[in-house]
Amino acid sequence: MTAAGVQLMGAVPGSASGLPAQAVLASGRLAPDPPGLPLAQGEVQVWVLHAADVPACASALVHTLSADERARAGRYRAEVHRQRFIARRGMLRWLSARYLGCSPQALRWEVEDGGKPLWRQPAAPRLAFSVSQTECMALLAFAWDCRVGVDVQ
User: How far apart are alpha carbons 69 and 132 in whole angstroms?
Assistant: First the structure.
């Protein structure tokens, strides 16, 4: 994949360079049923979640997590780490659902032999994703029909 095939989508949620305005409610909360996101074959889209956006994102997306994910979040001792997990996982579910045309709650995980997670429900093996995080930001990358990896340090 060349750099020309990579599209940096900007900050999420709701920055001027990030999600489209119609995807964000006036209160700053993410819309419950966002429109689909276009993702061309051969393109990689990388979304940036800045640390300053984590509390609002976690609050807006906690309802999208599965019971197992909410339990995992509850095991974090520090609130900042709990919120980061919820924001990252919620954003992963919310963006994946926009690409796949389903609700975030409909998505179910499966783990490949090598340990890489992928969406299995609804039938979504074609959407590849990768998530990487630091204390300052998280990157979420998406592409069709390939393996994708992103790293931030």
Answer: 17
Phi-psi bin for 42: left (phi > 0), alpha (psi -120 to 50), beta?
left
Residue 109's pLDDT is: 82
Q: Which residues pair with 127 in a beta bridge?
A: 144
- pTM tops 0.85: no
Cβ partners under 8 Å of residue 55, min gap 6: 83, 87
Show the tokens assigned to 11.
């900050």
Q: How far apart are the first and last CA of the chain?
A: 21
- Indicate the pairing of strand 6-11 with strand 117-121: unpaired
Q: 60 or 14: whose pLDDT is higher?
A: 60
